[in-house]
């Protein structure tokens, strides 16, 4: 299980910007809907900023001819990621596999709403209270981004719920105890 260092990834000291900012963090690979990521980046109004932190096939993204409201950061070190999350208002995470990524959990821990495809079917812990689900459809994604931009209070409620969930279920302290129990049980069963 992914354990999140909640003392490092938290919703304290958010950086307030006048410009609404969408973020994306990830590897440009087959697990990410790169085509939708590109279309969203090209479709956002100029008054919305889109900040990327990417690794993998960086040249592919640079070759998209993105507008000036899209900022690309390449291979940021993990210790700088809390700062990145504090600079965005929502995270767009178009992952294609049936899992919850570390990026999703880190963002949620920082109180940032995460927009993603069909997230609630991935775990019993996720709901529309703490994650923002969208179909794999440009219009639906753009409408959700615009809704979250206009509804500051809703963003706050979702962010608070997401942060609370991470503290209760996915903090490093909790997941390390779970892993220890699994290994202890395995050692006992196999008499190692």
Question: Can you walk me through this structure?
Answer:
The chain is built from seven helices and six strands, in the order βαβαβαβαββααα. By secondary structure, it is of the alpha/beta class. The chain has a six-stranded parallel sheet, with helices on both faces. Helix 2 links the parallel strand 2 and strand 3. The longest helix is centred in the C-terminal third of the chain and has 19 residues, at 152-170. It is globular. The mean pLDDT is 87.
Task: Supply the key terms.
192 residues, alpha/beta, six-stranded parallel sheet, 7 helices, globular
Topology:
Elements: E1 21-28, H1 34-43, E2 49-56, H2 58-62, E3 70-74, H3 81-86, E4 90-92, H4 102-109, E5 114-117, E6 132-134, H5 138-150, H6 152-170, H7 172-190
Parallel strand pairs: 1-2, 1-4, 2-3, 4-5, 5-6
The helix fraction, in percent, is: 40-55%
User: Roughly what is the average pLDDT, rounded to an integer?
Assistant: 87
Sequence of secondary-structure elements:
EHEHEHEHEEHHH
β-sheet strand percentage: 15-25%
Short description:
The protein contains 7 helices and 6 strands. It is α/β, with parallel strands linked by helices and 192 residues long.
